[in-house]
């Protein structure tokens, strides 16, 4: 069941579109922001609210990389693996992060604190290599140990 | 030709604050902001606005360089109250590109005014800013600017008492590079998977919700207020080339000062790289560069004196693309860099066309093998064959041809490095970890 707050956040998004279906990506994101990820059950509830079938909505949800259809950690780290980061130390950063967190891209730490995911260019190429943690971009992570202090801010 | 303005004026970035904060509405107005919209609504017809933009030789900054005024003129003349749309393409996910973010974070009202002028020119009453979800700072800056613009009635009903009304919405996307392809974008905006549409019909005739829609890049739209305020001739004078205006060029990679600079269109690659980016970092040598993002052909040192503009780079077999270059230094393995590029394209393919959906993962597989020292000499020709199959004409959209550009040129220019990986059965840079 979607609660009052989730419904309200969804409605705020839907107001910008000509019909509910057109606003479905915004609706998914609004609920995900409050819940962390979109479970099957949650998907069904949202679909019903939008007048879509669950399959129709899942067809959309599974297309987009920042809609999570599986559980993620409390914080999601997107590491940019595109070319500008690649040429200035992406590999070292990835190796360091994987070692620090003991996970590979696509995995979540045992304590549920971080999920590590690959990302396409984050658009901060002048400050490569970069990661995005939740809603914050952190660039200039060379040497990779610079990320250690940043991770401490996400509990 | 008297090019008196060129190099001195920076209409896009000259008014930016030095502390990195966005220009507030009042500050934007002080630099002449919203004057163009006021004047256009008072004393120009939509057709006049179109003609002025056409005369300015403004070409689209989203990568393809399509003449903007001409694009607008394809929107059929208004009949009745049915809706038309203007959409700002702020999806900016081309690897190596960060120019639109700079414009949005520093001068959000410039984009809003540009969109309002575009909407007036084509008779649109609804506008969307299609922003990639990762640009959180841009989204906050734009949301605030939109609220201010509505408050002052620069947006909303009956703007400046002219009878022209415009609603503008901010759409936050949810990832995937293909959302930037204009027809994929429109599907995404309709709440669907971002699968490109067949063209024709072009969006100007049948776009968002099947209605006439103009999709323009953020930087393109940001130029419009300046053209309307200062005139087409002034705009043409800013440029060293045929296409008018300045360009926000960028450099990333192992250079002394990675960044972006607004310079006359047609500034040489050498000037951008050596003067503005400060040249290569100590201990690194230039081996090649992608002039305008990941989906442009590699260029070499011998091309440095080329002007960065649409026509010149096309002659050199490449493209200006987004005008933000990525530098390949001598300590970067060309196979590894190619692998990074193709991994991106393979992952971001929407999966609609066979050469793209099947070919790109195969390319990644072969590059991986070569990088790991397990490649075969035949793989090199297979890679070139794939580049040929991914080229224009074989696929629905330009993502696959975009992947073919660095692939074909990279294998051609750095073939020896590919061969060394294969004959030595390892990456000579020791990068296959
Ligand atoms: C795969 C792909 C991704 C694209 N991404 C963008 C983008 O993020 N931003 C953009 O302005 N144009 C992008 N384009 C180009 C658009 O399709 C379109 O040409 C452009 O937005 C038109 O604007 P302009 O005429 O102002 O250049 C992309 C094209 C392709 C094929
Ligand atoms: S070329 Fe690739 S991204 Fe473009 S429509 Fe075909 S499969 Fe999709």
Short structural summary:
The complex is a heterodimer of chains A (155) and B (433). Chain A has 7 helices and 4 strands; from the N terminus they run H-H-H-H-E-H-H-E-E-E-H.
Task: State the end-to-end CA separation of chain B.
Answer: 55 Å
Broad structural category of chain B: alpha/beta
Largest sheet of chain A: 4 strands, mixed
Question: Which residues of chain A form runs of ≥5 with pLDDT under 50?
Answer: none
CATH class of the largest domain in chain B: Alpha Beta
Q: What distance separates the N and C termini of chain A?
A: 28 Å
Low-confidence stretches of chain B: none
DSSP helix count of chain B? Answer: 18
Helix/strand order of chain A: HHHHEHHEEEH
Instruction: Please list the strands of the largest sheet of chain B in the order they lie side by side.
Output: 3-2-1-4
Please write the string of helix (H) and strand (E) elements of chain B. Answer: HHHHEHHEHEHEHHEEHEHEHHHHHH
The CATH class of the largest domain in chain A: Alpha Beta
What is the rounded Rg of chain A? 17 Å
Strand proportion of chain A: 5-15%
Dominant shape of chain B: globular
CATH superfamily of the largest domain in chain A: Glutaredoxin
Mean pLDDT reading of chain B: 95
| CATH hierarchy: architecture of the largest domain in chain A | 3-Layer(aba) Sandwich
Enumerate the strands of the largest sheet of chain A in spatial order, edge to edge or round the barrel.
2-1-3-4
Multimeric status of the protein = heterodimer
- Strand percent estimate of chain B: 5-15%
Topology readout:
The complex is a heterodimer of chains A (155) and B (433).
Chain A: H1 4-14, H2 24-35, H3 40-50, H4 54-61, E1 75-80, H5 83-86, H6 90-101, E2 114-119, E3 131-133, E4 136-138, H7 146-151
Chain B: H1 25-30, H2 35-43, H3 46-55, H4 68-73, E1 85-90, H5 99-106, H6 108-122, E2 126-131, H7 136-151, E3 167-172, H8 182-189, E4 213-217, H9 218-230, H10 232-237, E5 246-252, E6 259-264, H11 269-276, E7 286-290, H12 310-315, E8 324-329, H13 334-348, H14 354-357, H15 359-371, H16 377-389, H17 399-413, H18 415-424
Parallel strand pairs in B: 1-2, 1-4, 2-3, 5-8
Antiparallel strand pairs in B: 5-6, 7-8
Helix pairs in contact in B: 2-6, 2-9, 3-6, 5-6, 5-7, 6-9, 13-15, 13-17, 15-16, 16-17
Bound molecules: flavin mononucleotide and iron/sulfur cluster.
């Amino acid at each position: 069941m979607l609660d009052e707050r989730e419904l309200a956040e969804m409605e705020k998004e839907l107001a910008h579109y000509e019909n509910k279906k057109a606003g479905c990506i915004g609706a998914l994101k609004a609920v995900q922001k409050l819940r962390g990820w979109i479970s099957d059950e949650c998907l069904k509830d949202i679909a019903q609210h939008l007048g879509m079938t669950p399959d129709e909505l899942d067809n959309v949800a599974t297309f987009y990389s920042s809609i999570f259809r599986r559980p993620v950690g409390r914080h999601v780290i997107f590491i940019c693996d595109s070319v500008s980061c690649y040429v200035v130390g992406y590999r070292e950063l990835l190796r360091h992060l994987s070692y620090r967190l003991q996970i590979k891209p696509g995995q979540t730490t045992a304590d549920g604190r971080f999920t590590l995911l690959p990302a396409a260019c984050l658009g901060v190429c002048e400050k490569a290599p970069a990661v995005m943690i939740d809603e914050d971009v952190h660039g200039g992570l060379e040497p990779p140990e610079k990320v250690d202090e940043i991770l401490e801010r996400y509990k | 030709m008297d090019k008196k303005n060129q190099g001195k004026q920076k209409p896009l970035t000259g008014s930016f604050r030095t502390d990195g904060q966005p220009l507030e509405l009042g500050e934007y107005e002080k630099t002449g902001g919203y004057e163009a919209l006021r004047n256009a609504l008072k004393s120009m017809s939509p057709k006049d606005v179109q003609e002025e933009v056409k005369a300015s030789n403004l070409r689209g900054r989203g990568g393809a360089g399509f003449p903007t005024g001409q694009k607008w003129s394809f929107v059929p003349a208004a009949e009745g109250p049915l809706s038309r749309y203007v959409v700002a393409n702020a999806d900016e996910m081309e690897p190596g590109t960060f120019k639109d973010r700079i414009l949005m974070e520093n001068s959000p009202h410039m984009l809003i005014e540009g969109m309002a002028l575009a909407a007036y020119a084509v008779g649109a009453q609804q506008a969307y800013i299609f922003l990639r979800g990762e640009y959180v700072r841009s989204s906050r800056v734009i949301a605030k600017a939109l609220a201010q613009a509505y408050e002052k009635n620069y947006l909303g009903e009956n703007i400046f008492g002219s009878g022209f009304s415009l609603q503008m919405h901010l759409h936050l996307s949810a990832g995937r590079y293909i959302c930037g392809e204009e027809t994929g974008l429109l599907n995404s905006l309709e709440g669907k998977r971002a699968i490109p549409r067949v063209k024709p019909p072009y969006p100007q005739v049948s776009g968002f919700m099947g209605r006439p829609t103009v999709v323009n890049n953020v930087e393109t739209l940001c130029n419009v207020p300046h053209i309307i305020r200062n005139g087409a001739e002034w705009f043409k004078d800013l440029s060293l080339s045929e296409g008018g205006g300045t360009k926000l060029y960028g450099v990333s990679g192992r250079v002394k000062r990675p960044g972006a600079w607004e310079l006359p269109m047609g500034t040489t690659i050498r000037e951008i790289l050596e003067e503005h980016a400060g040249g290569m970092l100590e201990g690194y040598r230039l081996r090649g560069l992608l002039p305008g993002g990941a989906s442009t052909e590699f260029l070499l040192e011998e091309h440095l004196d080329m002007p960065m503009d649409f026509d010149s780079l096309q002659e050199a077999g490449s493209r200006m693309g987004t005008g933000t270059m990525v530098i390949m230094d001598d300590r970067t393995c060309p196979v590894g860099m190619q692998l990074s590029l193709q991994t991106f394209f393979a992952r971001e393919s929407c999966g609609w066309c066979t050469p793209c959906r099947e070919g790109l993962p195969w390319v990644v597989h072969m590059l991986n093998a070569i990088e790991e020292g397990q490649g075969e000499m035949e793989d090199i020709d297979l890679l070139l064959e794939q580049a040929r199959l991914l080229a224009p004409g074989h696929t629905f959209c330009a993502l696959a041809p975009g992947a073919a550009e660095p692939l074909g040129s990279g294998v051609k220019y750095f073939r020896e490095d590919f061969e060394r990986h294969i004959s030595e059965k390892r990456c000579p840079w020791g990068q296959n970890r």
